[in-house]
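Why should sequence recovery work at all? Because a backbone constrains its sequence more than one might expect. Tight turns favour small or flexible residues, buried strands favour hydrophobic ones, and helices have their own preferences. The token representation captures these environments compactly. In the example below, the structure is given first.
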């Protein structure tokens, strides 16, 4: 709002305040309609239902949720939902979630997601869509899991991968790199390292360590107070607040492995990761890969994400895009509607097969393997 609000701004602000008081908010937080089509240990697979006027076409899209993160990351609110956008445009759209991690699951590591949860979801999505190959779309740690799953399962019916905000070289993450000596079991006693992990897992410490969130907490009342006439801004604040409230901490060995594997050893920066009794190499990914980095992402900065490009040696094409917004904003912020999403849809159209749905999954997969790769690895920034 202007320092001296115009009449139109006053009316808009009054309307927004009334909606907050009478309806609890201005955002439309209804989820995009979906149906549970499969479930198993740590796996709940949903199919987003298209409207009766929409005909699904092309290869299916599987949205990979990061462990410990609310599934609404892909369906933040009406008008700012990647799932809604894909469904409206006719893409057969699915999402895998994992349910609550219970106390008896405390010894889990990341291996079940790579060896069982995601492969089972891919096979089910392919079968549900008539044997077509699947586009994996993963955000944050979901993108890392998508890459590891593709590398570990070359036989999976995959058409392509798109990863958003997936940090590979954590030495390039300012919020992580300074803490590594404190968390590295090779730099002191195991008790010290373990104590640092426990300390880092405490809610207050985790809250304070994410200093952008602290900044928003202090600045938000001022920002909201000066933008009471901006319905879109207020709706986005409400939706992000709901998402943040639903965050679940990583627990047990999965949380410890993030430190021991991703932080102290920075294993993925070298292109391979020991998981279970095997070593998974990103060089084994033989599908096209679209990589997004957020222009203002402090959790997964551009250099940390771009480090994956030279590691994908077998991919027929690796494309790097700089998207507007931060870690969540690049996925489902207001600017994502004109930046990230159109680029993703162009990618899906490029790498979708032209085969009919009845073609077996194996044949459909072969049909998508066009051996093409950018020689320079040049990136382009997305316009907004």
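From this structural description, the recovered sequence reads:
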């Amino acid at each position: 709002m202007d320092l001296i609000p115009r009449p139109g701004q006053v009316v808009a602000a009054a309307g927004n305040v009334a909606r907050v008081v009478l309806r609890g908010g201005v955002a439309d937080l209804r989820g995009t309609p979906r149906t549970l089509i499969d479930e198993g240990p740590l796996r709940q697979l949903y199919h987003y239902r298209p409207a009766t006027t929409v005909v699904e076409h092309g290869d299916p899209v599987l949205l990979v949720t990061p462990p410990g993160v609310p599934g609404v990351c892909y369906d933040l609110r009406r008008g700012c939902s990647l799932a809604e956008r894909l469904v409206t445009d006719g893409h057969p759209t699915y999402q895998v979630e994992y349910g609550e991690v219970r106390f008896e699951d405390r010894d889990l590591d990341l291996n079940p997601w790579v060896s069982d949860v995601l492969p089972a979801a891919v096979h089910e999505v392919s079968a549900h869509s008539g044997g077509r190959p699947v586009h994996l779309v993963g955000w944050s740690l979901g993108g890392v899991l998508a890459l590891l799953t593709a590398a570990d399962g070359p036989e999976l019916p995959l058409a392509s991968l798109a990863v958003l905000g997936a940090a590979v070289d954590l030495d390039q993450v300012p919020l992580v790199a300074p803490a590594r000596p404190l968390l590295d079991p090779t730099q002191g006693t195991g008790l010290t390292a373990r104590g640092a992990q426990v300390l880092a897992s405490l809610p207050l410490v985790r809250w304070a360590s994410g200093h952008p969130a602290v900044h928003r907490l202090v600045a938000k009342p001022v920002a909201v107070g000066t933008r009471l006439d901006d319905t879109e801004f207020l709706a986005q604040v409400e939706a992000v607040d709901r998402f943040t409230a639903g965050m679940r901490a990583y627990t047990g060995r999965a949380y410890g492995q993030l430190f021991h594997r991703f932080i102290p050893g920075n294993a993925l920066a070298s292109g391979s990761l020991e998981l279970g009794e095997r070593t998974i190499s990103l060089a084994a990914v033989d599908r096209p890969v679209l990589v997004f980095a957020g222009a203002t992402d402090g959790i997964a900065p551009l250099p940390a994400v771009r480090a994956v490009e030279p590691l994908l040696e077998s991919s027929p094409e690796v494309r790097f895009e700089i998207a507007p917004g931060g870690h969540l904003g690049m996925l489902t912020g207001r600017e994502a509607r004109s930046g990230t999403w159109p680029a993703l849809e162009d990618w899906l159209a490029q790498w979708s097969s032209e085969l009919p749905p009845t073609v077996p999954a194996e044949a459909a997969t072969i049909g998508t393997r066009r051996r093409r790769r950018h020689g320079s690895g040049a990136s382009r920034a997305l316009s907004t």
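A few observations help interpret the result. The chain is about 40% helix and 15% strand.
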